[in-house]
Amino acid sequence: MINNKYLTVLLSFTFLISCSPKLSSVLVKDYQSLAYDEEVVVFDIDEDIPEEFEQIGVLKARDTGFSVKCNYEIVLDKAKLEARKAGGNAIKITMHKKPDFWSTCHRIDAIILKTPIKYNK
């Protein structure tokens, strides 16, 4: 018989995980992760990517169906974190869907980018 305390912890953990937007990424190049405080430059949909940037992967942020903490800033922060894990120091937003009838979350697609030089936007 499962102890009620353990069941409560398991259900709470499951609920907390399902409250965040789901991020998935596909990498085409393998780099060492960046530090958690390393700057990640964000290029919006209408901005061009400078030549010195190399594409190292793509990422998608989607609603899990139970997501509640998924305003644009939070989704963007999670995308930057995913880019850092992949070794990228920039992302280019390629698609942004705002909350609508189907989802209360912002959803984005982005390209993970890397440049060897310090880039100031």
UniProtKB/TrEMBL annotation:
Source organism's superkingdom? Bacteria
Put simply, this protein is called Lipoprotein
